[in-house]
Amino acid sequence: MKYLKHSERDADVITNYYQGLFLHREFGQEINVVIIVKINLKTQKAGHVILFSSDVEMSREKMVDYYSLRFQIEFNFRDAKQHFGLEDFMTRGETGVENAANMSFLMVNVSAKLIADSGEKCVSINDLKTHYRGVKYLSEAIKILMKKPETKIKKEAIEEAKERISQLGSIHQRKVVASTA
């Protein structure tokens, strides 16, 4: 167990961290390698991740942190492209491209804040978009109905409709309690 640097257990999962300096024929220098092995004790399934750096002084913790940040940046780019039109904008000028990219990343950050504030455990950007689209549709429907003077809608009915409509098409459904009014 020369290379085992740290081991931790969380419920039925053991995570082992191995680290060492190694040579590779494609690199003209030593490389710092961290291997993370997770073993599920119930299923006996194992998974591993290999991280490496040319900085031979870098600690295991710092390398794991750097890779975590790197993947978070990649996920932000994915979300900006997939959900907020980063790959669809048609502008060619420098200012237009910068504005489109900034708007996409602003929406990624706003979405992350809204998801964090929601208190729900399983909420995705798609769920968030579905919720606000449903609220907008209901708002527009109420505006149309309220133009007729004989229309009277109870506030409780509006809130229940908002809850139900805002979840139509949502991946992670929340339980809606129907009002008895």
Which helices and strands appear, and what pairs or packs with what?
Elements: E1 4-10, E2 13-22, E3 31-40, E4 46-53, H1 60-84, H2 94-118, H3 125-146, H4 155-165
Antiparallel strand pairs: 1-2, 2-3, 3-4
Helix pairs in contact: 1-2, 3-4
Brief summary of the model shown:
The protein is of the alpha+beta class and 181 residues long. The protein contains four helices and four strands; from the N terminus they run ββββαααα. It folds into three domains: 55 residues; 47 residues, no CATH class; 59 residues, no CATH class.
Share of residues in strands = 15-25%
Mean pLDDT: 85
| Element-by-element helix/strand order | EEEEHHHH
Share of residues in helices: 40-55%
- Approximate shape: elongated
* Alpha carbon gyration radius: 25 Å
Question: How would you explain this protein's 3D organization?
Answer:
The chain has 4 helices and 4 strands; from the N terminus they run E-E-E-E-H-H-H-H. By secondary structure, it is an alpha+beta fold. It folds into 3 domains: 4-58; 73-119, no CATH class; 123-181, no CATH class. A 4-stranded antiparallel sheet has the order 1-2-3-4, with helices on one face. It is elongated and about 80 Å long. The chain starts with a strand and ends in a 16-residue tail after the last helix.
Observed structural traits:
181 residues, alpha+beta, 3 domains, four-stranded antiparallel beta sheet, 19% strand, elongated
